[in-house]
Every structure is written in C-alpha cells, then in structure tokens.
Design a protein that fits this description.
alpha+beta, 3 strands
Length: 73
C-alpha cells in the first residue's frame, strides 16, 4: 500500500512563494512555517505552505517624526 505525501523541499517552497530557499529556512527557524527535517533536508507540507499569510512587498512603513510647534519646514 502506498500513500501520497504532499510535501516539498525548501527550494520548491521558495519557488512556490517567490522567495529564496534561505528565506524559507528563516520562516522555519522562526516557527512561522512548520517543517520536518529528514536527513539534511527540510520537508514542508503543501497545506502548511498554502496556509501562510500573504507577503507585504516593499519596505515597512515608518512613522514620520513629529515636528515641534515652533519648527518650520
């Protein structure tokens, strides 16, 4: 009896998300992406990969410093 396992490695996961395999390993290390290490490879379930929240592209927004009352442009 054989069962199909829907699992992929970090390289395939990176292609799926449009990021590098290094970034996939960062997500795994942070605990944001569940994975199992088999030998020297990380294996990720496709369902876990699809459950990741969407990425926000670009740099994070920063707060603009507030101007003092008497300060001019």
């Amino acid at each position: 009896m054989t069962t199909k396992i829907d699992a992929i490695n970090t390289t395939e996961a990176g292609k799926y998300l449009g990021v590098t395999r290094v970034w996939i390993r960062v997500l795994i290390r942070q605990g944001r992406l569940p994975a199992v290490k088999i030998g020297r490879d990380w294996v990720i379930q496709e369902a876990d990969l699809a459950a990741l929240p969407p990425r926000h592209l670009g740099r994070p927004k920063t707060k603009q410093p507030r101007k003092k009352k008497n300060e001019r442009n």
